[in-house]
Amino acid sequence: MLLITCPNCGPRDETEFHYGGQAHIAYPENPAELTDAEWSRYLFYRENPKGAFAERWVHSAGCRKWFNAVRDTVTYEFKSIYTGAAPATTTAAATNGGQK
């Protein structure tokens, strides 16, 4: 069982949280202008790196607030948990979801 530290409530059991996918995915400026292929890429294509990865989480059984975290996908260790646009300390690949 993982112990996840909610930025509002402190350390809690992983069963209190729900995963929200990759963090820092910008919503398209003009979604109506996207082709079906471009829209499906936005909706379904995400990075799947080995190592540090920026993710969204919600404390669904607690404060019900969303936050971001950088988690190592190999060890499951949470490297950084933050509520702003970027983590305090992490690699560049983790902040932009591994995109160049």
Considering the chains and any ligands shown, give keywords for the structure.
two-stranded antiparallel sheet, 100 residues, 2 helices, single chain, alpha+beta, disordered C terminus, four-stranded antiparallel sheet, 6 strands
Structure characterization notes:
With 100 residues, the chain is an alpha+beta fold. Helix content is 13%, strand content 32%. The protein is globular. Residues 90-100 have low confidence and may be disordered.
Number of helices: 2
Write down the secondary-structure element order.
EEEHEEEH
Across the major sheet, the strand order is 3-4-5-6
Low-confidence stretches: 90-100
CA-based gyration radius: 15 Å
Fraction of residues in helix: 10-25%
Structural class: alpha+beta
Strand percentage:
25-35%
Number of strands: 6
* Major sheet summary line: 4 strands, antiparallel
The general outline is globular
Mean pLDDT: 88
End-to-end separation in angstroms reads: 33 Å
Topology (SSEs and partners):
Elements: E1 3-6, E2 10-13, E3 18-22, H1 36-44, E4 52-58, E5 66-72, E6 78-82, H2 92-95
Antiparallel strand pairs: 1-2, 3-4, 4-5, 5-6
Give a short synopsis of this structure.
The chain contains 2 helices and 6 strands; from the N terminus they run E-E-E-H-E-E-E-H. With 100 residues, the chain is an alpha+beta fold. The protein starts with a strand and ends in a 5-residue tail after the last helix.
